[in-house]
Amino acid sequence: MNNNRLITVEHPNSQISEAYRTLRTNIQFSSLDKNVKTIVVTSSVAGEGKSTTCANLGVVMAENGYNTILIDCDFRNPSLHRQFNIPNRKGLLGFLEGNALFSESVQKTKVSNLDIAMVGTKANNPSKLISSEKLKNLIEDLKETYDYIIIDTPPVTIATDAQLLSTYADGCVLVVASSQVEKAAALKAKALLEKVKAKILGVVLNKLDVKQNGYY
What we know:
Layout: H1 7-10, H2 15-28, E1 38-43, H3 50-63, E2 68-72, H4 80-83, H5 92-96, E3 106-108, E4 114-117, H6 126-130, H7 133-142, E5 148-152, H8 161-166, E6 171-177, H9 183-195, E7 200-206, H10 210-213
Family: Belongs to the CpsD/CapB family.
Organism: Clostridium cellulovorans (strain ATCC 35296 / DSM 3052 / OCM 3 / 743B)
Catalytic activity: L-tyrosyl-[protein] + ATP = O-phospho-L-tyrosyl-[protein] + ADP + H(+)
């Protein structure tokens, strides 16, 4: 996969869009004994394309008829809203601080069956909010409404947020930028997730030069 934004919307028949559909299928069949509904998407460092992956994964889930919500939990550097050209105004932060309803942070996207919950303003103490029972309970409640809940988080080696959120989720996807991130950083990210017993559903090799590496 490379760093195109909503390629699954703009070029649905492209090779990269098919790669996202393969990721969708692999997630759906990753566990025979447990239905995977909540998915954390993270990376080892910034700039690897985790938000792009999160957005496109949401699109391919929704296009298959699954009621899907994307939740931007990157309180430090929210960017998921940019993928859909939606302003980041009222958001999840207001709900967690008790100043707003969660429904105020949710907006429809241009993709059928796909909603997005934005952050709003940046938080002063993100880890405290993420570790709150209020967020954990919210994610559980959303399972009654949505088939898939996909959560964008900060890079796992930069903040503990992804580790905390992965304990609320059924599994996580680790995004690794090809030829950009050192192997040691990727292995550290994997180890940090495993430390909290997160189930790693798969690793996405992003920003891969498809022409250079051939079709397969």
